[in-house]
Each structure stands twice: as structure tokens, then as C-alpha cells.
Write a structure and sequence with these properties.
Distance between the termini: 35 Å
Low-confidence stretches: none
CATH superfamily of the largest domain: MFS general substrate transporter like domains
Largest sheet: none
Structural class: mainly alpha
CATH architecture of the largest domain: Up-down Bundle
CATH class of the largest domain: Mainly Alpha
Oligomer: single chain
Radius of gyration: 21 Å
Order of helices and strands: HHHHHHHHHHHHHHH
Number of helices: 15
Shape: globular
Number of strands: 0
Helix content: over 70%
Length: 388
């Protein structure tokens, strides 16, 4: 997760060299990353389904090949359409980076699902902090083409061997979740508790989770994309404006760990509610943040819930539906969230282009956060037999 998420979030480091090389508009070049993000969302469902059936080892191996190959191909890009094509390949590889590890870890743990997920998701934050600066060094020393080549080779050389150590389910090793010994015989996969995909699709709870995850990623992508230009509009320097993203990343690591452990104690769905309360608080503050220190405080508060959500979403799905179809159901939720995230950043930009201000865009974020909070509160456990 550190390598894959770190490499994907290094696109901004390559942005200026690619502009200088090919001369597209910023919007056109940005579209390549957005396309990869959308491909990731749709393919997450496929990756989740494949993980449920074949386990994480084969899926991560294949996705690492795609992700690494996309970066290697980028080193040979000759025009903008090739960049778009190669980022489709990268998006396919990226699609396994969350759904496979997240759906696997909740199968191995019950009592500490949130904590283990939070620890694992720290890898995402570390990647965002560590890999882009290393990439800057590579570009300075070797140029952007060789840097893409090095990233692709390193990713495949590291991720593929690590994938061979993964197992879908502890029952494959004669164990039960949390390290308990297997005491029954029979097919371990078939004995796994939970609803089938078809049964889960008939529940109100799944669509409520999808709906509030749309709100989470709509807010998340809008903030991450537009907080820097908003800070620049307030008169800050480029370096200070970029530091807001770092602040969000840093406090998100704290949020992943804190809410992962807290969710195990108070319930993962209640943890989601807590994160929404923090999100509403942060976005309420953003409506009036007119000074630099106020924006830093927003970034710190927002980053905490940003990390907390990602530590809790997979355990929450496992609590509601069991782990039988965890990968597929998590993929469906990620798909809907991706659609929301893609819409959010584009709509916020359109609102600014039209009105000259982010005020309306930030108000929409607050309304969506409140809606998500209400949905999270209203979700009830599924009754025995898969009924609502």
C-alpha cells in the first residue's frame, strides 16, 4: 500500500515535466489521473469478486504487473493519447490496492478488525509522505522518463514477492480469525459467515453505506484537489499552500490509528458516526476560515476524520454483511465512492469558474456531510436470514 499509493500520488511531481514535454493544457493532463481514478473504481468490483473466489495472492500479483507495467510504459510515452492509455493500465493496477488488502484483513481478525485495518492503512499515508519526495530526487537526477521506469520496476520487484505471502482466509492454514485453532472440518470458504452478494444487494443497509461513502469521497476529493488553490486565493505562497495537504496527510495517520482502535471498542458503525461528526465540525469551520491559522486548524481536524473513515469502512461492511462476499461488497461501495469523488472535484472547479468563489462548493460539502451523518445514524443491523 505504501508503494502503490505513494507512486500514484506522485503524479503531481511529474506534472510540470509532462507539461513541458507535451504542452497540453492543465485540464487535459489532469484528465489522465482522473481517468485512472474512475477505472480504479469500476475495476474495484471486479478485483473484489476475484479476491472472494481466488484469494488475494493471484489478484495482487496481477494488479502489480499492471501497475508496474503502466509506469514502465509511461517512460516511453510519445504524446498525450498514449498518456491516457497508459493511465488506464495504471488504473487497473491501482484498483486492487484498497479492496484486496481491506477485504483480506477483516477475514483474519474479528476482535481487532478496526485496529488492524487502521495499522494497514497507515501505509497509504506513509506512501503519500515518503514516495513523492523520493520521486522528486529521481527526476532531478535521471529525468522523468527514467524515473517512471525505476518506479515501475521497483513496484513489481517489491509487491509481487510480498503478494505470495498472502492468504485469503485463516481457514486455509487450519486457523480461525484472531489466531484461534480450527476445530471443524469441511470447506473453509463455504463455512465462512455472511450474506451472498445477491442477498446483500436486496438490503437497504448496503445502499445506505454506498450513499454515505459517496458523501465521504465527494468531500475528500474536493478538499484534496481544491484546498491548495483556495489557500493561494487567500494570498499564501505556493509552499505554504502545499503544506495544507501534508497537514491533512499527517493527521490522517493519527485518525487511521485512533479510530481503528476506537471502533473496536465502541463499534465500527459508531466510529463512522464519530468521524461524520468531526467532518461536519471541520466543514462548518471551513465556511468561516478566512485566515491562515484557521485553514491550518481545518486541515488538522479534517485530516483526522479522513483517515478514520478509511480505517472503519471495511470493518463496518464486515459487521453488517459478514465476510463471505467482503471483497465484492467493498468493491461496490468503493465504486460508488469513486463516482462521488470524481464528481466533487469537477463540480467544485466549475462552481469556482462560474462564481469566482468556493463558497457554494464548500456549503455543498457541509450539506453532504450532514446527510451522510444522518444515514450513518439510521443504519441498523441486518436481521438473521439477511432481512432488514
Amino acid at each position: 500500500m505504501t508503494l502503490v499509493h505513494g507512486a500514484f500520488n506522485s503524479f503531481g511531481v511529474f506534472f510540470t515535466p509532462l507539461l513541458d514535454e507535451f504542452g497540453p493544457t492543465r485540464a487535459l493532463l489532469s484528465g489522465a489521473s482522473s481517468l485512472a481514478f474512475l477505472v480504479m473504481g469500476f475495476m474495484s468490483v471486479v478485483m473484489g469478486l476475484l479476491t472472494d473466489r481466488f484469494g488475494p495472492r493471484k489478484v495482487i500479483t496481477a494488479s502489480a504487473l499492471f501497475f508496474g507495467a503502466g509506469h514502465i510504459l509511461m517512460s516511453q510515452a510519445g504524446n498525450i493519447w498514449q498518456i491516457y492509455l497508459f493511465f488506464i493500465v495504471i488504473g487497473i493496477g491501482l484498483s486492487a490496492s484498497d479492496v484486496v488488502p481491506l477485504s483480506t484483513v477483516v477475514r483474519w481478525f474479528i476482535r481487532k478488525r478496526g485496529a488492524m485495518t487502521g495499522i494497514m492503512k497507515v501505509g497509504t499515508g506513509l506512501g503519500m509522505v515518503a514516495v513523492p519526495p523520493l520521486t522528486i530526487t529521481l527526476i532531478g537526477a535521471f529525468g522523468w522518463r527514467t524515473s517512471y521506469l525505476i518506479l515501475g520496476v521497483v513496484i513489481m520487484a517489491a509487491v509481487i514477492p510480498l503478494a505470495q505471502l498472502m492468504r485469503r482466509d485463516p481457514r486455509e492454514m487450519g486457523l480461525l480469525p484472531d489466531g484461534a485453532q480450527q476445530t471443524t472440518t469441511g470447506n473453509p470458504v463455504l463455512s465462512e459467515p455472511g450474506l451472498s452478494v445477491r442477498e446483500a444487494l436486496r438490503t437497504r443497509q448496503l445502499w445506505m453505506v454506498c450513499s454515505f461513502y459517496i458523501a465521504i469521497l465527494y468531500c475528500g476529493m474536493t478538499v484534496l484537489v481544491h484546498i491548495v488553490p483556495h489557500a493561494l486565493d487567500m494570498g499564501t505562497s505556493a509552499g505554504i499552500a502545499a503544506s495544507f495537504v501534508s497537514a491533512i496527510g499527517g493527521t490522517s495517520i493519527v485518525g487511521r490509528l485512533t479510530m481503528g482502535f476506537t471502533g473496536d471498542k465502541i463499534g465500527h458503525k459508531r466510529g463512522i458516526v464519530v468521524c461524520f461528526v468531526v467532518l461536519v465540525t471541520a466543514l462548518s469551520w471551513l465556511q468561516f476560515a478566512s485566515e491562515l491559522w484557521m485553514l491550518y486548524l481545518f486541515a488538522a481536524i479534517y485530516g483526522f476524520n479522513h483517515g478514520g473513515f478509511f480505517a472503519l469502512i471495511s470493518p463496518t461492511i464486515a459487521d453488517l454483511f459478514g465476510t463471505r462476499s467482503q471483497g465484492t461488497l467493498l468493491g461496490i461501495v468503493i465504486l460508488f465512492g469513486t463516482l462521488g469523488g470524481s464528481l466533487g472535484s469537477v463540480l467544485a472547479g466549475h462552481i469556482f469558474d462560474t462564481t469566482g468563489s468556493y463558497q457554494l462548493a464548500f456549503f455543498i460539502l457541509l450539506m453532504l456531510a450532514i446527510t451522510g451523518l444522518i444515514l450513518a445514524i439510521l443504519i441498523k443491523p441486518i436481521r438473521k436470514g439477511g432481512t432488514e
